[in-house]
Amino acid sequence: MIEREQVPMDVVFVGAGPANLASALHLKAEIKRHDELVEKGFKPGRQIGDLEIAIVEKGSFVGAHILSGGVMDPIAIRELMPDFLAQGCPVDTVVTEDAAWYLTPTRGFVAPITPPPLKNKGKYIVSLSKVCEWLGEKCEEAGINIFPEFPAAEILYDENDAVIGVRTGDKGIDKDGHKKPNFEPGVDLLAKVTVLGEGSRGSLAKQLMSRLGLMEGKEPQVFSLGVKELWEVPEGNFAEGMVVHTLGFPSDTRTYGGGWIYGMKNNVVSIGYVTGLDYEDPNIDPHHEFQKYKTHPKVAKILAGGKMIKYGAKTINAGGYYTMPKLYADGVLIVGDSASFLNGQRIKGIHTAMKSGMLAAETIVGAFDHEDFSSKTLKHFEEKVNLSWIYDELHAVRNFHGAFQKGRWSGLINTGLQFLTKGMAWGFMPKEHHVAGHERMQKLGEGKSDASRYAELKFDKELTFDKVTDVFYGAVAHDEDQPSHLHVLDTEICATRCAEEYDNPCQRFCPAAVYEMETDAVSGRKELKVNFSNCVHCKTCDIADPYQIINWVTPEGGGGPNYKGM
Ligand code: SF4
Questions:
Q1: 408 is in which domain, residue-wise?
Q2: Taking the complete model, does pTM exceed 0.70, yes or no?
Q3: What pLDDT was estimated at residue 245?
């Protein structure tokens, strides 16, 4: 039995992403406002005073694990801090021009008008990692405690299943599970309200939804994987402030996918490709889709003569409104991507994540005012969301992704019609509406599996890169003498059923070459090898595995990618 320190806090935020950082800052400001109004007699209730607020973050610094395309709609940050630019928010570039391209394998067509959801003029191209680092500094200035390298490993519940805080991960356990000389037990951070803002497929949010049935009556969450590189390109190849979104090559018409190319300062280009993790063909490899994307003549021309400087991969919640869990339970709220707040049609979630965090903060003020941290008070969070512009934005595109599960043309026609009808589905959705991605993966030989889809893709290390090289550019590091954080619950399935039925798709869907099937020289039997130290924490394996036997848990704090500046 390990003795653990108990640290009493008032509010604990899990994850230092845009949702939680905005939430913590807004909470501080709203408490001050509330107390002043109560003091002057303009508001009934009690003064709350100083709260102990903590943000725990698994990365080595705030921003280390933050990755986005990223064009930021400033609507939420403006509400949080109207003078965010004057206060030094590190936006990179203002969007001055945008375009939509349709790519065939050899040609590219520029849409005569950019579809309204993809219009970005006046918005900001950002490194979300840098914006979060800056928000973290603002939080610290406001007296909020931030603990980097402290992954929240478990949720703490009381005897009635109310959440009472989180336990952080132990440090100093070797790969066989024994304590090393530097062993430090995790601590129990006790909180009246815990806010889960861990990003897409949050490991604690997943546990919570399952234990408390928060997805009951909701459609399954649906995800996409974005794979991104930053490039330095020669002057004149691509204009600063230019934003391009593409559809078509290399995705087939049954697979959801699209690319982006954003022109940043100093001739840096953010380029990436999103593949829906609800693809049917188990041969698909989202990293290879991106590499193939860069070989398109119109895209390759932009990168010609340039060099890749950074790599990253991250999943996003693509399902939207219908796939949002119940957002509250006793003692806990879920915000941002963890609760599917992203607008899939605009491929934007920074603004909705921040706004969800701010509404959570306002709910928490009410909870402290009434000294009630149960669902009775915390349910107001969901009501606030449904009364805010988040509802207007997400409800109007509620059927966007589902229609693409019937193929590209169905998705596009539905997108046009829903734009005119504020989101009606028009019969283009699959019968079941959103279907969980892993359930859509077909076995080899079923449907149209194509084992030769990357036959012509060569990794020349100039334009295209293999996964191991890319991982190097993600600056990924984990102490190798620790237990693997990728729990494969039954490796016998990998060696037998999965090998026969899907040819082990984990080798392809992981964008960091973590999973390999090795053939034993003597028995000829296939065995799974997990190179966990390559992991970029994208969560794809936890989502896409057709047998759902991969469980991603937090590794020792500080490990993972370093997305500084991404
Ligand atoms: Fe992503 Fe899983 Fe691969 Fe890690 S192991 S990079 S979470 S797919």
A1: 401-431
A2: yes
A3: 97
